[in-house]
Specification:
This protein is mostly helical. The chain has 4 helices and no strands. It is 88% helix and 0% strand.
Length: 105
């Protein structure tokens, strides 16, 4: 799960770069949509981990284990938010480019 999170964080960072052409922006948006689907497909696993972390915090003397799981859950939530923000920005960039193209070309 940690590796999966790291890989997606790297992909999101890579896809954050501004694109020049309309086609590049469309491809970027498509990649971000796939990443969002990948992230959302793991939500049930993350939710389950979160529930287990809460139980561990209550029942275990090893608070560190529950805290580690909570960190993974927080990392996932930040990743999902970054992906959503990137998706919104890509859509806006694509729309702005299309409007510019339609207006001036």
């Amino acid at each position: 799960l940690q590796r999966w999170l790291k890989d997606l964080e790297d992909q999101i960072s890579t896809d954050s770069a501004l694109q020049n052409t309309l086609q590049e922006k469309k491809l970027q948006l498509d990649r971000v949509k796939v990443q969002q689907l990948n992230i959302s497909s793991q939500k049930s696993i993350i939710d389950s981990l979160n529930v287990k972390a809460q139980h561990l915090k209550q029942s275990s003397r090893d608070a560190n284990l529950g805290a580690q799981i909570s960190l993974v859950v927080d990392r996932y939530e930040r990743l999902a938010k970054r992906a959503k923000n990137l998706h919104d920005q890509c859509e806006k960039n694509l729309q702005d480019h299309q409007i510019y193209r339609d207006s001036y070309m």
